[in-house]
Amino acid sequence: MNEKTETGHQSRKQAIEAQAKLRRERAAEKLRENLGRRKQQVRARRSGQADETNGLPAAKMDES
Fold first, then answer.
1. Nearest Cα to 12, choosing from 2, 1, 4, 22?
2. From start to end residue, where is composition biased (Basic residues) (predicted)?
3. For residue 52, which phi and psi values (nearest 5 degrees)?
């Protein structure tokens, strides 16, 4: 290989690695946001009354 090809290959490899790092960082941020939302939901449920429904209310037939 000549020097020009090796340099181009290295810069492309660095660009791919940088993109992968950005993807991992975005995924980690999304996971943190999701965890925060889930914790907030749990706190809200604890502060309110217990959920009395069993299953999906819309799936049940009316007994009238």
1. 4
2. 37-46
3. -90, -5
> What pLDDT was estimated at residue 27?
97
Classify residue 55 by its DSSP letter. Answer: S
Q: Render pLDDT for 4-49 as a digit per residue (tens, 0 to 9).
A: 667 778 899 999 999 999 999 999 999 999 999 999 998 888 877 6
Residues contacting 45, CB < 8 A, separation 6+: 51
Q: How far is CA 51 from CA 4, 36, 47, 61, in A?
A: 67, 21, 12, 19
